[in-house]
Amino acid sequence: xxxxxxxxxxxxxxxxxxxxxxxxxxxxxxxxxxxxxxxLIHESEKIAFLRPLPARSIHGVGRVTGDALLGAGIAxxxxxxxxxxxxxxxxxxxxxxxxxxxxGDDTRPLDLDDEVKSISAENxxxxxxxxxxxxxxxxxxxxxxxxxxxxRNRLGAFTVQVKVRYxxxxxxTRQTSMxxxxxxxxxxxxxxxxxxxxxxxxxxxxxxxxxxxxxxxEDRCRQLPLPLT
Length: 229
What we know:
The chain is α+β, with helices and mostly antiparallel strands. It is built from 9 helices and 6 strands; from the N terminus they run αβαβαααααβαββαβ. It has a 4-stranded antiparallel beta sheet with strand order 3-6-4-5, with helices on one face. Helix 8 packs across helix 9 (about 185-200). The longest helix is centred in the middle third of the chain and has 21 residues, at about 130-150.
């Protein structure tokens, strides 16, 4: 609560915080009450907390895996927990790990490396929206924010990714990579719009929209001194 208060008073922004015993649960908790939530998942309550959530809310369950699960009658995490069969028949070798995720078990370590590997910005809307002008304005603001961070850190990005989440918590990402690194807001915005249009991601109202850039490299051009004339 002190962290949220500090962000509110210092930046006039809301922050959503999820607290749990591992990365999987903390991420789900942070998504639970956006845009201004604070969710704590106690270890003794994690199985019950997970049960009503869509199976697609689990990290790694995308459209293809989600469709395979749905074809077997698995729509929620409760269905995953209760499924009596071998999930490997549905999702391959990932089945045992997915089953562990369904019970809130995640042994992935935290990455405490200080190296910047990606820069992202995303917005969760108070109401799901498919309003094109509003979405474009959101993307422009995100592109401006990301470009400013890239330039401040003297970085360029080869890869641009967009992320969308619908009202049922289905989350999709699409990305493209360039031959040369970029760090200008207009280029990031243009590619984000192109990705949304190419895959028709705004085919229904969005709950969340975001941009991420990765494959970062040092922008050497910005660090070289001007040539003497």
